[in-house]
Amino acid sequence: LIWQDPIPARNSNYDVDAVKTKIADSGLSIQEMVETAWASASTFRHTDMRGGANGARIRLEPQKNWEVNKPNQLSKILNTLESIASETRASVADVIVLAGNVGIEKASGKSVPFTPGRGDATQEHTDVESFAVLEPEADGFRNYLKKNFTVTPEELMLDRAHLLGLTAPEMTVLVGGMRALGISSNDRGIFSENKGKLTNDFFKTLLDMSVKWEATGSNSYQATDRQSGEKVRRASRTDLVFGSNSQLRALAEVYAQSDNHEKFVTDFISAWNKVMNADRFDIN
């Protein structure tokens, strides 16, 4: 489309398995790899087909300095991934997405499909003012809220899911999986003790009736054990809506079932791929 942003020719002629090995041995954590891939791909807007992982504009102005992308952490991660891209002749855009896939594979023990062929945009072909409007004011998937708005955080999460073309089940499983992998702008919503594992712990813990939730701020809640009185965990409105909204709670109950771990992982990988490939018009 005429308003879409130019991306140079793509290169898909490289050894994907060799790149995955270098990423796995790079020392990056699962949380760092998955969060960076999400930050790159989740800028996509289904409404005007802008944004997305193709072009790797997360390494350029203005995206590399967006607060939601944790600039200091991002700079370190990109240095590592850009080095791998240079060594293997893969595009940085491909390596970023592939790193997210490697993180999920490590966390789940399952294979995550990958299609190479993304290109790398340049700063010259990236209009800073035009891209500034893509900056997320909120991203419920990362439990990020830039400031309080008249619109609630959970409504802003729905808006983000709509822009990404996600269904309610896809939104639900992605939030649960991201929290399980330790992805949150703070410690809210991190319920799992199985660090680095893609589990349904978020949903199982969220539906625990042995605690009482109380507001400690406009977007912060504290859970207190009903018997001991101990403060056990924190959450945001975005987290708790999966227990308070009847439709989302029904989905959370499905994923919380002890015999549905396999479905949870399968659905997460499917929804993840949908976001990572949202701007791959050459394959969609």
From TrEMBL:
Reaction equation(s) it catalyzes: 2 H2O2 = O2 + 2 H2O
Cofactor(s) recorded in Swiss-Prot or TrEMBL: heme b
Transmembrane segment boundaries: none
GO biological process: cellular response to hydrogen peroxide; hydrogen peroxide catabolic process
Keyword Transferase: no
Pfam families noted in UniProt: peroxidase (PF00141)
GO cellular component term of the entry, any: cytosol
Keywords from the UniProt entry: Heme, Hydrogen peroxide, Iron, Metal-binding, Oxidoreductase, Peroxidase
One example GO MF annotation: heme binding
Coiled-coil region(s): none
Record's keyword annotation contains Hydrolase: no
Protein name listed in UniProt: Plant heme peroxidase family profile domain-containing protein
Organism, scientific name: marine metagenome
